[in-house]
What we know:
Mean pLDDT: 87
Oligomer: single chain
CATH class of the largest domain: Mainly Alpha
Radius of gyration: 25 Å
Number of helices: 13
Low-confidence stretches: none
Order of helices and strands: HEEHHHHHHHHHHHH
Amino acid sequence: MQRKPISYRRQRRRSEFLWGWAFLLPTVVGLIILNIYPIFYTIYLSFHKSGDFGRNNIFVGFQNYAKALKDMQILKAMRNSLLYMLMEVPISVALSLVLAALMNQKIRFRTVYRTIIFLPMVAAPAAVAMVWRWLFNTEFGLINHILGKKISWISDPKISLVSIAIIGIWSILGYNMILFLAALQEVPNDYYEAAELDGAGKAVQFFRITLPLISPMIYFVLVTRVIAALQVFDTIYMMMDRTNPALQDTQSLVFLFYRYSFVENNRGYGSTIVVLLLLITLIFTVLQNYGQKKWVIYD
């Protein structure tokens, strides 16, 4: 068989190289403009005091960070973000896992149930907030009507963050369930058949076979949910009015960033909050990455 000339092979490699970069270029440019550049610019702004109309920024070094670490509002928002994460992530992951296991069984109307559970993910956040504001309404809310009590779900500082967490759990159940369903359907049925022959019940099969084999997906969901929970903003923004007495007990770090950066036009201080949130997120991600070596099974 006659080989192609060297010039032809070089021209083909060059053509493949150029076409490859042509397809990659939009993604690379978008990544640089929308992700990488904003990260470095935010860090840059965190060392400056915002000037008038976004110009003439004044370099202040670590003054913003020193101020932020003493700011009680930021410390309280940090506490709120962490409490929200500790409430939303474990409960949503556990419930999603149970729902996925149930929806993986052969039951009637399984597709309908899956669709209903997943619907909150495709609903507009404004519509979700409007529905839950009605459900949590102190005077006319459906929940209080069923309980026969007048509970201030949103305006009581003691339970307002719990109410926000309930909305977060309800909103993310369907997404987590789909991820767990995909993992469950990859588990070979041979394991369950062998376990049944050995006399293992459903509970033993779930904890000894199902959980270990889908542990990589559980780890992925945990990491992504922790990151998302620490960045909670839209639910708080749409549920809590500025005059709400419980606002201080529910506002998150991202909510404070929005307020300082876009309401008070103090982008330098707002950027400092973002960098602190980034560091907290990195710490949790590193801890999870270290811990997963002890319980995640990849083989």
